[in-house]
Amino acid sequence: MKLKYICTLLTLLLALYFVPADSQTKKKARRHPVKHIVKVVKKKPVKKVMSQPVITAKSLGDAIATANQDTSKNGGQVNENGSLSEEIVVTTAYKPVLADAVKIRINPDLDDKAPFKAPLSYSPIDKRLEQNTDIKPLVAMQRPAEKDSDFTNNYLKVGLGNLKTTYGEAYFDNGPDEALQYGGFLKHFAQDGNLYKQNESKDEAAIFGKSIGQINSLSGRIDYTYNTNYFYGFDPSALPPTLNVNQQHFSIIRAEGEFAKNYKDVPNDFTYALKISGYEFSNAYRARESNVVISGFLNEMVNQFYAGVSASLDLTTQNDSLYNYNNSIARVNPYLKFQGETYKIDAGINIVDQFGFNSALNIFPAAKLEFQVIPHYVRLFAEVKGDVNKSTLLNFTSANPFLGGDVPIKNSVDKLDIAAGLKGTLAPGFSFKATIFRNSVKDMPLFISDFNFSKGYNRFTVIYDGGNSLVTGVSGEMDFRASKSLDIFGRVEFNQYQMATVAQPWNMPKEKLTGGATIHISNTVDVTGSLLARSSVLDPYSQPGSTVSTDIKSFIDFNAGISYKASNRISVFVHANNILNTNYQAWLFYPEYGFNIFGGVGFGF
Question: What is the rounded average pLDDT for all residues in the chain?
């Protein structure tokens, strides 16, 4: 039992040791303390002393918790014998008091909100620090890469249509090489009209090449053309008993080569060029024509002045059943050019020497002036010039394929051509040119009918106005590029003729309009259109029993086409001619084809 009491007292001593010394009970006045004197002696038993009054506290813990006075009497002093003795006054039993529990009403956040930290890598810049604070020039932007990486440098188109139309084109070259270009092409187009022998065929083949060096460039070309047609025209009011619908063909082989210095935007540059060209022409009968032209120029630039000279030697031989001519021309054109911010002046002369079956020396002015009326928008220009126009079988048959044999040859002379007008750009994408002109022409060539239907002969020939003809008029040109998807262009001419020896300007229209448009509907669909309108003309042919010349009516010819790009290599196209289906005649008794349409496919490779 003594051991039990000793353990109880030791427990109380430990509890009292950690309780604050200033603990007091709540009701100090009514307290009746019961003193317990405990003396702790080393190695001696402790005797429990009980006080007489009865302890009324609920428990020893409640008394200790509510105590508010110092229960230490001795303060834990050590006595003389070295033993620890302490007097403890127990006022009530110890009762620990705990605060009420509070529930944490916060749900845990299950989202992973850890921020993403990109891995960082650092590399030092090996660059010297410069103290130059001047504005540096902008670095030129690099050219963007080509969008269409599937590059095709060869192309083939084939098509068929009504009027037995056959169509074909083929192009080939070596690809994107800036220093060397070579290639060629083939073309074919043929139609059979509704009239008897209203047949036409055009074929062409060519090869070309160009080499660009550091200083000079060399280019060349050879092409061959073979065209055929029939003489199908006749007077429907008086049917001929016979008709010579013989086949006509034109065979032309051309060649040219050019050697020129590359252009460089440098002051006081010296430029030069030399070109040699020629052709060989023949038809189904006896007409032959050979031509060689050697031309070139030298030009020196000094500040705002250009000084130079251009020259050419044009050698031609022409023969048919009735003649064999040497028709050659030599030209020399020295000039000076002055150019400023608002003006440009070209001053020179054109010396022309004709030799061969006809000899003559002519000197013509060659001057031109341009002045900016509205800077960067509108310019005023004026021009005075003259020249000799060589009459060639190639030019005549290209304009009128229904010529007969033994076409007379005589060179015409532009004695004085004067022109003035305005040109420029009124708005972005809208450019124009308006010209008033007056030309004095000696020996103007004219196409006239040379029909003899009693013998079945239905051909044309050429005559010349023996004096000085005067041609005055107005012309206008316009190109309106509204956007990348729409481009409209056109040209109109109004002419007045004063003939010297002939009665009328035979087969020469007074009004003529040409135009067209290109519409890019999308990256895959393109629409094109063209328009030709011509006023009426006169031909000296008179019907039997009449002396009045024949009037060839005016006409409008409208053509259109559409193409669809199915892929980078394959495309489909449709083209329609004479959509209005007008039965018009460009030459008397030779009506053109009616409405015709053809289409096909194209393939790039």
Answer: 85
- Sign, CA dihedral 255-260-264-267, equals negative
User: Which is more confidently placed, 126 or 22?
Assistant: 126
- Look at residue 219 and tell me if it is in a domain: no
The pLDDT, as a whole number, for residue 40 is 42
Distance of alpha carbon 1 from alpha carbon 288, whole angstroms: 158
pLDDT digits (tens, 9 = 90+) for 203-227: 999 999 999 999 999 999 999 999 9
Say what the pLDDT of residue 142 is.
Answer: 74
The residue among 319, 334, 329, 250 whose CA lies nearest residue 293 is 329
- Pick from 97, 127, 161: which residue ends a domain? 97
Looking at the structure of the chain, the number of domains it has is 2
| pLDDT value of residue 525 | 96
String of DSSP letters for 496-548: EEE-SSSSS-TT--SEEEEEEEEEE-SSSEEEEEEEEEE--EEES---TT--S
Of 97, 130, 158, the residue at which a domain comes to its end is: 97
Which residues, listed in sequence order, are joined to residue 551 by a DSSP beta bridge?
538
Domain presence at residue 9: yes
Side chain identity, residue 516: G
Beta strands in 284-400 (DSSP E): 288-302, 305-319, 324-339, 343-356, 360-374, 378-389
The number of beta carbons lying within 10 Å of the beta carbon of residue 177 is: 12
pLDDT digit string, tens, across residues 550-575 = 999 999 999 999 999 999 899 999 99
Task: Outline where DSSP puts E strands in 320-359.
Answer: 324-339, 343-356
CB 463 within 8 A of CB 443: no
Q: Is 54 inside any structural domain?
A: yes
Percent residues over pLDDT 90 in the chain:
67
- Confidence band (pLDDT; 50, 70, 90) for 135? low
Taking CA atoms, 205 is separated from 21, 156, 172, 221, in Å, by 125, 14, 12, 11
For residue 177, the model assigns a pLDDT of 87
* Domain span holding position 92: 1-97
Conformation bin of residue 8: beta by default, left when phi > 0, alpha when psi is -120 to 50: alpha
pLDDT of 54 > 50? The answer is no
Question: What three-state secondary structure class fits 395?
Answer: helix
Q: Three-state SS for 180?
A: strand
- Give the pLDDT mean for 10-18: 60
Structure tokens at 170: 């083929």
* Residue 15 resides in a domain: yes
Q: DSSP states of 3-53 as a string?
A: HHHHHHHHHHHHHHHHS-TT-B-S--TT-----------TTSPPPP---SS
